[in-house]
Structures are given as C-alpha cells and as structure tokens.
Amino acid sequence: MPAIVAALVMLTALVLLNLLLTFGVIRKLREHARDLAPVVPRTTLAAGATVPDFTATTDRGEAVSTATFRGAGGLVAFLAPDCPACAEQLPAVRSRLADAAGGAGAVVVVLTRLHPDAASGGASGAGSGAAEAEAAALVEELGVAGGPALIVHEPLDGPAQTAFQVAAFPAFYLVDGDGRVEVATNAAAQLPARPRLDVVGTVRVR
Hints:
By secondary structure, this protein is α/β, with parallel strands linked by helices.
C-alpha cells in the first residue's frame, strides 16, 4: 500500500511539473510571437480595397499615380529579374500583357530587385550595370520593349509596391476606374479575361 501511495504522489508531481513546463513554453511562444509581430509580412491589398495615393515618374518624364487608372482602370504587374517564380510565369505574363495592349485602360509594369546586393557579384561599381542589364533583358522577354509601354523601376518596397502592399512576387492587380482593386493574384494565369487594355508603360521612380 505505501508503495502505491508513493507511486501516486510521484505521478502527481510529474503531471504538475509537466503542466508548469507547458505553461512556460506557451508563455514564451506568446512573447516570441509578440516580438515578431512588427516584421510579419503584410497582407497584399485585397479585392475591393482602394489603392492608396502614390506617385512615380516614367522614363519619359510622365507622372504615374492612382489618377492613371481613373475612368478606364488598368492592370499593374510587379516583377523582379531575380525572382524564380517570375521567370516560371514569363509566358503567361507576356501573353497577358499582349492581350492587354490596345484597350482603353492602363497597364503599368513595376520592376524591382529582391536581392539588390547580389547584382554586384562582389565587384566594385558593377552592381548597377548588372542590375540594369537584367532589368532590360526582362523587359525584352516581356515583349514591352520599344513599344508604347513605359516601364517602372523602383527599389524593393518602393512607392508603388508600398501602395499595393505587395507581399510576394510576382503580383498582379486589376484596378477599376474608381481606383479599387478588382483582382489581386500572384499568378498571371488567374487574371480573368477582360477588354483589352492600353499599355501606359513602364514607370521609373526617381
């Protein structure tokens, strides 16, 4: 009998110890989650949301902003030369941009680099030239070089990306004539069919 009592006492002690450890782990996890909260990736601008004001300047010196979509709406594509998922979707993106050309809306292509330091390859002064060459090659692959398209180059988390709250690349948005997001997706193939859009161009943020 004393042995059974001792065993029960020991089992109870172990259960209580386990509960204390569990509560301690839960408390630490909550503290960890609270500390990470400020750096959790933001949620992309969802369908139905109004695009916040932003401004950019094209390489032709034209202003691009939320007013660009007023009236006829448009398509915005966010891409990066060093984005594997962007490379995989190039055929679909190229097709979508081609379909969009010639319509009444605006098409804005925003280019950035996800890893700006990697373009330098460790060589002093080589980074900017390499990045520009990669961006130019992507523009060629997209089929928007040399035409009416104007193209947007901006740093990571630049004004356009911030306005649309881009959380992953590539990202595509259909915007209506009132400046509201109709569709937000990371897959060009998921963009719905709609009337052909004018390519407003590629925008360069100064």
